[in-house]
Amino acid sequence: xxxxLVLLTVARNKVNAVAETLADMEGITEVYSLAGxxxxxxxxxxxxxxxxxxxxxxxxxxxxxxxxxxxxxxxRVHSRHDLESMFSIGL
Length: 91
Fold this sequence. Notes:
34% strand, Alpha-Beta Plaits, alpha+beta
């Protein structure tokens, strides 16, 4: 599995609309609104690099209102959050 974080600068009046559109796209698991240099952070989790390229270039960056993007590919996760939440189901 490939995980990428995409930091977006969005037109001021389009942040919520862009976030909602992105959240509905296949491969995008989370969209966070941010304070600071970027407006949105998008988490993409896909099968391989080809699918990542498809999501980013052919779907995500075609959304009207996105001004700039910076894509960061993750090598490894260093959090126990996901594992702990899986094992706590039903307890």
